Amino acid sequence: MSKEQILQTILNSIGDSVWVLTTLYKQNKGVGKEQLRGLVNERYGAKHEGKILITSRHILDRYLSRLEGAGLVDVSEHGRARHYHLSELGHELINFRKNIFIERKKPYGK
Questions:
Q1: pLDDT number for residue 106
Q2: What are the structural domain ranges in the chain?
Q3: Correct CATH for 3-102 of 1.10.10.10, 1.10.3720.10, 1.20.1440.230, 4.10.91.10
């Protein structure tokens, strides 16, 4: 498998968790769990007529554990608080995703 195929497979398998990744990318710093939930729902709601993506702490925990397990998110602990931020692989996946959108916008033949 090529690097692009691996990244595409990961992107396909994380589903709506990509909203967490893109939010962490936009923040460009570690974010606490509850703050992350609010930021993701705010961004998601802006694109989907005010709908909420993360309706419970349980759903947030599932998204985060999936992303941690895939190595896309790193966690740092500050006292009892945990802060989430993109790993190097997470950055790579976001950049790959951005390139996909750029390629789709190019006119045919270029």
A1: 64
A2: 3-102
A3: 1.10.10.10
